[in-house]
Amino acid sequence: MADIDVKVAQWKLVEVGRVVLIRRGPYIGKLAAIVEIVDHRRVLIDGPSTEQNKIVPRHVLPLAHATLTPFVIPQLPRSAGTGPVRKLWQKNEIDGKWAKSNYAQKTERTERRKNLNDFERFKVMRLRKQARFEVQKSQAKLRAAAPKS
């Protein structure tokens, strides 16, 4: 038999300290940390964000309503209270790391686009037309300069 080295995708594990994104319920789109694993379908979460409008109170959440993120709060003790979770959340700068993630940036862009008024949508359309024109112009120059075969 061949010696095979199998690596488990660590960020997909449900573990104490894993940061989750809530997908359903009253706290949709907010972050929380897994504090305790209740059973194979539910976890106890706590979301002590530094921003007031992003705080998630401690409650049990079905795993079907959460998306696991690649962020983990290391050395978070099981069943830790909100105070220790808040300190480790701030120490590990979870809000800052989340703001830099591709998913957060994409959702922020879509929200901004969704809330544009009519004139702002018109300006976006004009800018996209200008950019498209510049790309087509440069492609035409390249085609003209290319040797004909």
From TrEMBL:
Family of the protein in this entry: Belongs to the eukaryotic ribosomal protein eL14 family.
Q: Cell division: is it a keyword of this entry?
A: no
Keyword list (alphabetical) reads: Cytoplasm, Ribonucleoprotein, Ribosomal protein
Q: Which GO cellular component terms, listed alphabetically, does the Swiss-Prot or TrEMBL entry include? A: cytosolic large ribosomal subunit
Location comes to: Cytoplasm
Superkingdom in the source lineage:
Eukaryota
Q: Domain named Large ribosomal subunit protein eL14: which ranges? A: 57-132
Q: What is this protein called?
A: 60S ribosomal protein L14-A
The family database entries (SUPFAM superfamilies) matched by this protein are listed as: Translation proteins SH3-like domain (SSF50104)
The residue ranges of the KOW domain are: 16-46
Gene Ontology biological-process annotations: ribosomal large subunit biogenesis; translation
Q: What molecular functions are annotated in GO for this chain? A: RNA binding; structural constituent of ribosome
Q: Does the keyword Nucleotide-binding apply?
A: no
Q: Which Pfam families match?
A: KOW, Ribosomal_L14e
Job of this protein:
Component of the ribosome, a large ribonucleoprotein complex responsible for the synthesis of proteins in the cell. The small ribosomal subunit (SSU) binds messenger RNAs (mRNAs) and translates the encoded message by selecting cognate aminoacyl-transfer RNA (tRNA) molecules. The large subunit (LSU) contains the ribosomal catalytic site termed the peptidyl transferase center (PTC), which catalyzes the formation of peptide bonds, thereby polymerizing the amino acids delivered by tRNAs into a polypeptide chain.
